[in-house]
C-alpha cells in the first residue's frame, strides 16, 4: 500500500484568480490531498489581509473535500516538513515565470531534497492572468469578471468602494 500524496500549493493569493482555481482543480485530481498555503507577511501593503484571503479561499474551495486552506510563515520547505507534504505545486504560465520558478524550486530542493516541486500549466484563458494585473485593472476601472471567482470580484468591488470585506 502506498502512502497518500499530500501536496502544498503555496502563494500570496492577493487576490485568488481563476488561474489559481484552475491549478487547484487539476491538483485535486492528481494528489490525494492538497493544501492552499497562504504566506503571511509577504507584502508590506497587500490589498487583502491574510484573514480575508483565507476566508475567500475557504469559500471558493469548499466544494473540494481534499483541499485545505492554511497559512505559513518562514521557509516553505520547513512548512512542508511540518505538514509531512512531499510535493510543492506551482503554476507555470509563460517562459517569463520560468527563471524565478526554477530558482525557487532548486533552492527548495537544496534546502530539502525530499520535497519535489511539480509545475502545472493552467488552462489557456488564464495564461496571462496574475494577481498583480487583476489589481491594476480593477483600480483603473476595468472588468475582471471572467478572470477571478465571483466572490473575489465582489470583494474587489467592496474594497474599491471602501466597504469592509470580512464577513462576521
Ligand atoms: O504567489 P507568490 O507570491 O509567487 O508565492 C511565492 C511564495 C510564497 C511561494 C514564495 O515567496 C515562498 O515560498 N516564500 C517562503 C519563503 C521561502 O521558503 N523562501 C525560500 C525559497 S525561494
List the helices and strands and how they pair.
Layout: E1 6-11, H1 18-30, E2 33-39, H2 50-60, E3 67-72, H3 76-83, E4 87-91, H4 95-111, E5 116-120, H5 131-139, H6 150-160
Parallel strand pairs: 1-2, 1-4, 2-3, 4-5
4'-phosphopantetheine is lined by residues 10-12, 39, 42, 75-76, 104, 107-108.
Question: Kindly state the mean pLDDT as a whole number?
Answer: 94
Q: What would you call the structural class?
A: alpha/beta
Shape: globular
Q: Hey, roughly how much beta strand do the residues contain?
A: 15-25%
| Alpha plus pi helix count | 6
Beta-strand segment tally: 5
Q: Report, as a whole number of angstroms, the end-to-end distance.
A: 44 Å
Order of helical and strand elements: EHEHEHEHEHH
Ligand types:
4'-phosphopantetheine
Biggest beta sheet summary: 5 strands, parallel
CA-based gyration radius = 16 Å
Q: Spatial order of the strands in the main sheet?
A: 3-2-1-4-5
Helix content: 40-55%
Low-confidence stretches: none
Give a quick rundown of the structure.
With 168 residues, the protein is α/β, with parallel strands linked by helices.
Task: Characterise this structure.
The protein contains 6 helices and 5 strands, in the order βαβαβαβαβαα. By secondary structure, it is α/β, with parallel strands linked by helices. The protein is globular and about 50 Å long. Strands 3-2-1-4-5 form a 5-stranded parallel sheet, with helices on both faces. The longest helix is centred in the middle third of the chain and has 17 residues, at 95-111. 4'-phosphopantetheine binds next to strand 1 and helix 4.
Amino acid at each position: 500500500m502506498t502512502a497518500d500524496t499530500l501536496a502544498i500549493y503555496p502563494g500570496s493569493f492577493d487576490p485568488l484568480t481563476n488561474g489559481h482555481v484552475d491549478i487547484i482543480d487539476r491538483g485535486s485530481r492528481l494528489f490525494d490531498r492538497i493544501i492552499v498555503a497562504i504566506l503571511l507577511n509577504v507584502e508590506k501593503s497587500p490589498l487583502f489581509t491574510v484573514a480575508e484571503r483565507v476566508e475567500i479561499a475557504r469559500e471558493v474551495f469548499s466544494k473540494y473535500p481534499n483541499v485545505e486552506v492554511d497559512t505559513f510563515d518562514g521557509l516553505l520547505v520547513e512548512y512542508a516538513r511540518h505538514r509531512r507534504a512531499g510535493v510543492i505545486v506551482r503554476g507555470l504560465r509563460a517562459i517569463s515565470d520560468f527563471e524565478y520558478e526554477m530558482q525557487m524550486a532548486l533552492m527548495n530542493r537544496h534546502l530539502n531534497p525530499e520535497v519535489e516541486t511539480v509545475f502545472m500549466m493552467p488552462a489557456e484563458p488564464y495564461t496571462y492572468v496574475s494577481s498583480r494585473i487583476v489589481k491594476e485593472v480593477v483600480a483603473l476601472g476595468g472588468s475582471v469578471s471572467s478572470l477571478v471567482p465571483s466572490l473575489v470580484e465582489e470583494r474587489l468591488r467592496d474594497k474599491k468602494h471602501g466597504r469592509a470585506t470580512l464577513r462576521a
